[in-house]
Amino acid sequence: MVETTVKTDKSKAKASASFEMPKFEIPRFDMPQVEVPAAFREIAEKGVSQAKESYEKLKVAAEEASNVMEETYATASKGSADYGLKIIEVARTNTNATFDFYNDFFAVKSFAEAVELSTGFARKQFEAITAQTKALTESAQKVAMEAAEPMKSGLNKAFNKVA
Fold this sequence. Notes:
Strand content: under 5%
Radius of gyration: 40 Å
Distance between the termini: 81 Å
Largest sheet: none
Mean pLDDT: 82
Structural class: mainly alpha
Number of strands: 0
Number of helices: 3
Low-confidence stretches: 1-6
């Protein structure tokens, strides 16, 4: 059986070696020399020059928009980092206040003193959290406004140049 397979493979190899793709030549057509009228040439030249001018304007606008986006990103990154630092500061302040409370709470001698200390701490923390929330909200609004301003003014400027 092995010999038959070998013979069959040899006969296929001979058949494929003798087969070739036919070659076709593409006919050549001679185009007559026609001169383009000056009016058509002038229209084509104007179209090309207008396309070049439009391309240059769009290129400048795209570069300016890219610069604005980079500036916006940098402003937003800085603002976000500052906001994150404020959140860390708030957490640190609240943690320290809680540790101070527990330190004082363990030194309490009576139940009435414990209730008074707990009530005072809760009131102070409520006031502190209210003030912190207000400060964080103002900070977040400031970051959003600062990040949006370069984009707003820069994109308006870029698109006004294109128009």
